[in-house]
Amino acid sequence: xxxxxxxxxxxxxxxxxxxxxxxxxxxxxxxxxxxxxxxxxxxxxxxxxxxxxxxxxxxxxxxxxxxxxxxxxxxxxxxxxxxxxxxxxxxxxxxxxxxxxxxxxxxxxxxxxxxxxxxxxxxxxxxxxxxxxxxxxxxxxxxxxxxxxxxxxxxxxxxxxxxxxxxxx
Length: 169
Description:
Elements: H1 3-28, H2 30-33, H3 38-56, H4 60-64, E1 67-74, E2 81-82, H5 84-91, E3 98-113, E4 117-132, E5 135-151, E6 157-166
Parallel strand pairs: 1-6
Antiparallel strand pairs: 1-2, 3-4, 4-5, 5-6
């Protein structure tokens, strides 16, 4: 195992510990952590709605605009992808491929947080077609995800971390 792999594993362990801490405190001390205003809750729900609509509209800027510049995603079964530029290259590569989202539903199962940090736990269903040259993939997926949001210096909520797992790989 080289240093890069060790670094990724270590970062994933820290991220996992971070998530465990959030869930522990949200379950044990919900009143202390649930300091989100109604406006904050509505903004986070709108991000969730804009996220699914952005995918359905094939609008890369709309989807990526919801993420902080230093965001990290951890797709099911893959290593973390850090930074908005790397996320764009992963989701919207300039390689002649096309992805068409036929259906995307993302339901928030839990939403909690503090003044400037929040999370959602979500369940989603997705249907899409991916094509590149002579290759075509039609796929339906069901997933669970955790999204962590951070309020920036302008008071805007942005996605900071998103991790998901596909239930029907």
